[in-house]
Amino acid sequence: MTVEAWTLLPSLPKVASRDAVAAEQEGWTGVMLADSQNLAAELVVEMAMCAARTSRIRVSPGVTNSVTRHPAVLAGAMATLQAESSGRISVDIGRGDSSLAHLGFAPMGVKPFQRYVTTLRAYLRGEEVDFDPGFMPSGVRPLHTIDLGKAPGMSRLGWLRGDQPAVPVNVAATGPKMIAFGAVAADGVSLSVGADPARIAAAISAAREAREAAGLDPESLVVGAYLNVAVHDDLATAAQITSGKLASFTRFSVMHGSVTGFATEADRAELARFGGTYDMTAHGRADAQHTQGLSLEFMSRNAVIGDSKTVLERLWELRGLGVSRFILTEDFSRTGVAGESHRQLVEEVLPELLRWS
């Protein structure tokens, strides 16, 4: 299966598209932008700017959510970008995190999320979709309560061309229910369970079992993994570079009050301690107090850190387990030690990674 290398970019005006141009020159397969309206610029606008300023690289939310946009609105936006970019768009979607926290809400429940993704994919295929009041805010009346000569009986993207490539949808998942759903009902699953090979292997095994139970080929599943990466000869320095982003992704394993995501016994106690200390007002920041709650030993297993040789060996091991879509998350800074880490990643790791197809 073709190996893809994606990089997560800061979603800021003028910055995201500038970095997308640089990422295309560096050789990345694709770029991802966070969808978090209070912490980042508007996703669709920045995706459009990235696509407009590049010609080859793919563009995706990393990740969008199932709450802040009606599935028809999200599908319409992504399908439009797909048409304008000549087929370079994909979607990673999850239940919501910082985007909802800054509106005062917790992530969407698993079953409503599953309904959302199923509906989203139907819209993206140009299919007719039943009206679903569950996707609308309270206080909006059903259409049949007003007088019309003739009203639509179903919903669909009527402008969508039949020959346009469908937008791939990948479910960003940590827990077993989400992993199993994504493996069966989406184009791929993007694991957010850290970088420990034991956790990755358990998650992939669960995904393949779900596909087999559904009568699907388990080997055809596209498996992605969000991996926090820093390249530096000194392990402690590498850990510090990636600490802010790693803390954000680590929280997904304990955000609902109990440890999930196939955590190893070695990690369960540390994850349980970490869960209640996370400061959402310092989301993703390396200087956040909650980063101090992660030991170097934990970070060395759950992030991909070390010198370039070590990083390549770690990624190769995950490739052997079945990961083909590597979503490498770095510190957004391109200065100081973070800048040197990025340079080594691009020059010494990325070219080899892309040869593993």
UniProtKB/TrEMBL annotation:
Keywords: Oxidoreductase
A Pfam family hit: Bac_luciferase
Domain Luciferase-like positions: 20-324
Gene3D superfamilies documented for this protein: Luciferase-like domain (3.20.20.30)
Organism: Actinocorallia aurantiaca
Protein name: TIGR03842 family LLM class F420-dependent oxidoreductase
InterPro entries noted in UniProt: F420-G6PD/mer (IPR050564), Luciferase-like_dom (IPR011251), Luciferase-like_sf (IPR036661)
